[in-house]
Each structure stands twice: as structure tokens, then as C-alpha cells.
Write a structure and sequence with these properties.
The chain folds into 2 domains: 5-285, Rossmann fold, CATH 3.40.50; 288-521, no CATH class. It is globular and about 65 Å long. The N and C termini lie far apart (51 Å). The longest helix has 26 residues, at 278-303. A hairpin with a 5-residue loop joins strand 20 and strand 21 (417-418). The protein contains 11 helices and 26 strands. The strands form 9 sheets. The protein has a 4-stranded parallel beta sheet with strand order 5-6-8-10. A 4-stranded antiparallel beta sheet has the order 7-12-11-9, with helices on one face. The chain has helices at residues 13-16, 24-34, 69-79, 105-117, 145-158, 278-303, 307-310, 313-323, 331-334, 340-347, 505-512, and strands spanning 5-7, 48-50, 55-57, 60-62, 86-89, 120-124, 135-138, 175-180, 192-193, 219-222, 228-232, 237-242, 257-260, 272-275, 325-326, 352-353, 365-374, 379-385, 396-406, 410-411, 417-418, 420-427, 450-459, 468-477, 487-497, 518-521.
Length: 522
């Protein structure tokens, strides 16, 4: 990690924490830099600013008992360089589960800081001890992945009240991250079994919903595989037991996310250990945000357009990170039960982040982005050009995704809490159809500070030449009767078509966008 981080420790917590016990922060920074050191991703171009907030207290790393964490975070944000746009927070208050009523004091502080300083907090959803869900299945079914999947899924449903988000993950302005039961290596040891027979969330990952039943967590990314062990009880049954390392420092076996650890090759850790948890899923999103920030800088340099004059960098990152998410690949995990939609809403939010979509387009995918500020009862209208080349095709698969992100002023005096809301009204032209259903329940998609709509379709496109999809974003008061300040927002819209089509929709739309996409305001 040397040379890649800048550490500021005004409380001298490092003095109270011997080097050999600095596990959590070292692991979080390692993931933010490399994702997995056994299969490292490119390092961000900027150094990571690190502010310690925990110390070694006996056998644990925790925040000092004589300090108020909310005030520590407030002071840290006020002190940090103003160039910082993203703050990774891989902690949770273990005895403060979100009960669905008012946000915790820590979440309220994050919301106020995000609004005041226009920074994006990327927060871990929190971990749940899966040993509470030890299951018993028939001996014959113990090796049946499908039966085991169904049994674990039922346990997740039954224990939903115990799996609620840990404070401050319910923060409305933050981006909350849950974990997938994956890592970059993906191997298991003999005698261990994967939790699921399809791609799905980790059984240790906390679940939503957020305030006013908003979508939380918003994103899920690999947080480390959770292996299972099967223990025979008698001749007819066996227990399915999640394998939990009592001492993570000794987890050298290769299951989980490989991270840097205190010490060198001669130490017990050999300078590396394997971890899993939402604490290590969150910095994976932070890593993606750092590279996305570089892509935005390159876009500004190549076009001369001052994106950050329209909206703060943090909002561009918030919008585009979620814009890269989809849960279509995760739908088989929840099955076809009548509550599958609700289960997906609570566990995977808007879906898994697809790093292949970050900051890039292809011949068969284009993304249009815009940002601005809206006053109360004001609206901006945009036009998303549709490629004329698609009109010549007989039939093709397509998907349309639209994302809007904003920062809302918190208003604790009201139970609604969210000071302002933004509404999205897309209008598609005749001749371009999509399925009526969306990936996310439309009743909850706009209850937070992100709207993310993904729709799929198939068939012939019969729209007129030079047609457009009209997009209207409008600002309204929510908890506040009157909004004194303008609300910053960013919108992104993408059209994907199947990759084997002989058409370059990106170049066609790029030429049509030689003029600004905004067509009016009211």
C-alpha cells in the first residue's frame, strides 16, 4: 500500500493500535486499490485519502468508546480535502438495526454532510452471522445443490427481520452496498459446498428496505464466497452449516477476497489474508468509482464540456454507478415464488454492478448523460435520439435503462425526512415497444434519491425517422414545504441492442448529439 495512500490521523489512533492488529482498515484500503491482490485490477490514478476512526480494543477493532462516532465523522469530512468526492464507510453499528422508522443519528449525519459538501458516501449494508440459520436437510438431499438452495432461500426469508440494515446504511443520500456470494477466484475446498446453485447474494449480507421502504441496498458486488459444510447427524439427516473462521487472520486457504494484511512474508499472515463481508464489497464499488472518475475527466478533456459545472462530481458517480447495475442475472436466484420480487427488492436492490459498462460504450450500446439543478416545481426536458438504422431491421432484442440521482436536503422535523424528490417521466415514440414490467417495482423505485428503470423488449422498430424518447425530470417538495436551494441531479439513459446486429448505433447517435440534448425547461 506504500505510495498509494495518504493517511491523516489527528487523533493518533495508530499509536493505540499495534501494526499487527490493523486488519480491517488495511483490508478495506487493499480492496479499494486492487479489488483482489491475487488477481489485481488496475490501481486508481489518484492516491486514497485515509482517515482512521477505529483503534485496537482488546481483541477487536472498534471506535473509541469515549467518542461520539457521528461527531468523529463530521469532523473528518469537514477536515478532508475538498477534492474528495467519495467517502467509503465500511463500518456498521452492530446493535443498531434499522427498524423502518426514523433514520439513525449516524445516517442523519451522513445525509447532512452529503447535502452540505456534495460528497458520495459508499456504505456497507452490514453483516449477518449466518450461523443463526443452521439448517437440517435429508441425508439424500445434502449433496443436492437445488434442494440446498431452496432450504437456504427459505431461511433467508424467515430471518428477514434479523437481517435488517445496520446503521448508517439507511442513509438516503448514500449508496448502500450489499455482497454477492462471489470473489475473483471462485474456488472452494474439498468438503465445502457453495451456498447457491445460481448467482445470488451472500447469506451474510444484510438486507433492506430503507427509509419509507426505499430500495436498499442499491447495489450488490462480490464480497467473498461463503462456503458451507455438511455435518451428518444420523442416518437420515445432516446439518448445512456455514463455515465461519473464528480467527480471520488465519484464513489462508484461498476462499474469499485476497487482501493485504499487516506483516511480511515471515509473519503469520504472510502479508495476505482472505476476507468476506459487505465491508469489502463497499470498497469494490469505491474502486469502480475511482476509475469512473478518471473516465469523466477524460471526457471533459476531450469534449471541453464542464460536466462538474452542472452537477457535482459525486452525483455523476452516484448516477453512473447505479446505471451500470442490473438484476436480470440474479432473478433465477429468487425463483418464481409470488414474493420473489419483494425478496429481490430487499436483497439486491437495483442489481449487480457490471464493470464492463463503466465509462464505455460499444457499437451496440450508447449512453447519454446530462446534469443540472432544479428549483421547486421546475422541470427539464431531454430528448434521447433513436438510431434510424434500427428501423431497417426485422426484429431485435433491446433494453432501455434510465437513471436519475440527486442529493436531497434532510428534514428530520418530518417523518418523510427527504426534503425534495425528483420525478422521471419517459415518453417513448410509437413503434418502439418494451415489456410493461420493469426490473424494480415501480412503487418503490423513487422513494430514495435514485430512480433506476430497466426495461427489455423484442420485435421490429417502426418509429419514424429521427424519432426520440422524451425524458422529463421534475423537482417537487417532499418533507419540506418550500425548497430554498436548487436540487442538483444527474440523468443517464442507455439503449442496448443485441451484439450481432450489423448496425453501429453509437456512431449514429454521436453524430446527432452534435447539438445539446436539453430541449427545454418549464
Amino acid at each position: 500500500l506504500q505510495g498509494a495512500i495518504l493517511v491523516e490521523d489527528p487523533q493518533n489512533l495508530a499509536v493505540e493500535t499495534p501494526v499487527g492488529h490493523r486488519h480491517h482498515g488495511t483490508a478495506v484500503v487493499s480492496v479499494a486499490l486492487w479489488r483482489d491482490i491475487d488477481s489485481p485490477a488496475p490501481q486508481p490514478s489518484r492516491p486514497i485519502y485515509v482517515r482512521p476512526i477505529m483503534h485496537h480494543d482488546g481483541g477487536l477493532e472498534r471506535c473509541p468508546a469515549d467518542q461520539i462516532l457521528a461527531e468523529v465523522l463530521r469532523e473528518a469530512v469537514e477536515r478532508m480535502p475538498r477534492s474528495v468526492a467519495v467517502v467509503n464507510l465500511s463500518i456498521g453499528v452492530w446493535n443498531r438495526e434499522y427498524d423502518g422508522r426514523e433514520p439513525s443519528a449516524l445516517a442523519r449525519v451522513l445525509d447532512a454532510l452529503a447535502w452540505q459538501y456534495k460528497v458520495l458516501f459508499i456504505v456497507a449494508a452490514g453483516n449477518y452471522d449466518p450461523r443463526h440459520d443452521a439448517l437440517q436437510v435429508s441425508a439424500r438431499a445434502g449433496d443436492d445443490a437445488t434442494v440446498r438452495h431452496r432450504a437456504l432461500l427459505q431461511a433467508v426469508r424467515q430471518s428477514s427481520d434479523m437481517r435488517r440494515l445496520l446503521s448508517p446504511a439507511e442513509s438516503i443520500n448514500a449508496l448502500t452496498v450489499g455482497a454477492l456470494d462471489e470473489d475473483d477466484i471462485g474456488n472452494t475446498r474439498p468438503g465445502w459446498s457453495p451456498a447457491w446453485n445460481t448467482r445470488g447474494p451472500a447469506i451474510y449480507s444484510r438486507q433492506g428496505r430503507g427509509h419509507r421502504r426505499a430500495n436498499k441496498p442499491e447495489l450488490v458486488v462480490p464480497g467473498g464466497q461463503q462456503p458451507l459444510q455438511l455435518h451428518a447427524r444420523d442416518g437420515s439427516s445432516c446439518r448445512v452449516v456455514p463455515f465461519v473462521y473464528e480467527r480471520p487472520v488465519r484464513n489462508l486457504g484461498g476462499v474469499g477476497v485476497a487482501v493485504a494484511a499487516p506483516g511480511g512474508p515471515a509473519s503469520p499472515t504472510r502479508g495476505k489474508r482472505f476476507v468476506r463481508g459487505t465491508s469489502f464489497a463497499a470498497p469494490r464499488v469505491t474502486h469502480a468509482a475511482a476509475h469512473l472518475s478518471d473516465a469523466l475527466d477524460a471526457l471533459v478533456a476531450s469534449t471541453g464540456i464542464n460536466l462538474f459545472g452542472d452537477a457535482p462530481r459525486a452525483l455523476w458517480l452516484k448516477c453512473l454507478l447505479v446505471h451500470c447495475a442490473s438484476r436480470r442475472e440474479l432473478e433465477p436466484w429468487a425463483g418464481l415464488d409470488e414474493d420473489a420480487q419483494d425478496l429481490l427488492d430487499r436483497t439486491v436492490g437495483f442489481g449487480a454492478l457490471d464493470p464492463q459498462r463503466l465509462g464505455s460504450c460499444t457499437r451496440h450500446r450508447f449512453t447519454v448523460i446530462a446534469g443540472g439543478e432544479l428549483h421547486q416545481d421546475q422541470a427539464h426536458r431531454y430528448a434521447l435520439p433513436l438510431p434510424n438504422g434500427l428501423r431497417e431491421l426485422k426484429s431485435f432484442r433491446r433494453s432501455l435503462r434510465i437513471t436519475v440521482a440527486w442529493f436531497a436536503p434532510p428534514w428530520p422535523a418530518s417523518s418523510s425526512y427527504r426534503g425534495a424528490k425528483i420525478k422521471l417521466e419517459p415518453v417513448e415514440p410509437k413503434g418502439l415497444s418494451f415489456n410493461r414490467g420493469r426490473e424494480v417495482n415501480h412503487h418503490i423505485e423513487s422513494r430514495g434519491t435514485i430512480i433506476h428503470q430497466v426495461r427489455h423488449g423484442r420485435g421490429k422498430a417502426t418509429y419514424r425517422a429521427d424519432s426520440e424518447i422524451a425524458l422529463t425530470v421534475a423537482c417537487q417538495a417532499d418533507a419540506m414545504k418550500h425548497i430554498d436551494e436548487p436540487i442538483p441531479y444527474v440523468i443517464a439513459a442507455s439503449l442496448d441492442v443485441e451484439p450481432d446486429l450489423e448496425v453501429d448505433i453509437y456512431q449514429e447517435v454521436k453524430q446527432r448529439l452534435a447539438v445539446p440534448v436539453r430541449v427545454g425547461a418549464r
